[in-house]
Write a structure and sequence with these properties.
With 180 residues, this protein is an alpha+beta fold. The protein has one domain: Aminopeptidase (3-Layer(aba) Sandwich). Helices cover 31% and strands 28% of the residues. The protein is built from 7 helices and 8 strands, in the order E-E-H-H-H-H-H-E-E-E-H-E-H-E-E. It has helices at 18-25, 29-36, 47-53, 58-63, 65-68, 117-130, 147-155; strands spanning 6-7, 12-15, 73-77, 85-92, 101-108, 137-142, 159-166, 170-178. Helix 1 (18-25) runs antiparallel to helix 2 (29-36). The chain is globular and about 40 Å long. 33% of the residues are buried.
Amino acid sequence: MPTSVLHTARLELVPMTIAMVEAVMLGRREDAEGLVQARMPARWPNRELVERAFTASLEAIRADPAVRIWGDRVLVVRPKDADARVVGSVVFHGDPGAAGVAEIAYGVEEASQGQGYATEAVDACLRWALAHDHVRAVQAATFAWHRPSIRVIEKVGMGLVGSRDHETLGELVVYERRRS
């Protein structure tokens, strides 16, 4: 199943490409905006975004983009009366491979938070991932205190399945939705 643009009621979920990843990771804002044909938020791309969204090095992503940026998308709002703008991203931590479990992460820029964009985008990407034959489940991990993130996860039908320790961040709670 090829990666294509996903559409929701308010969003266009544009697949990330190698050119987009390079522009973001190398801080080339104008190139990134040109590739997605939308204005990037004032603070994006920045080092924090790069470190959270891209857990692999640029070299590793270039070497195996089908695995490294599998399903990753940029959230774009294209209003009829204003310029298109990027409001966030949804990323998977690579192709789920033989285990069949994909891990999803997401972020919405500060000025666009609290408007339902994360829920809308995560739901669409979750359904997209679970439509693949090799995907048995999609998981999301967050801090137990991060209520906005947990609300998104619960709204898209993911249930708590446990917790795990992250080597630098501490304990994360893990939610999952399985293919029915």
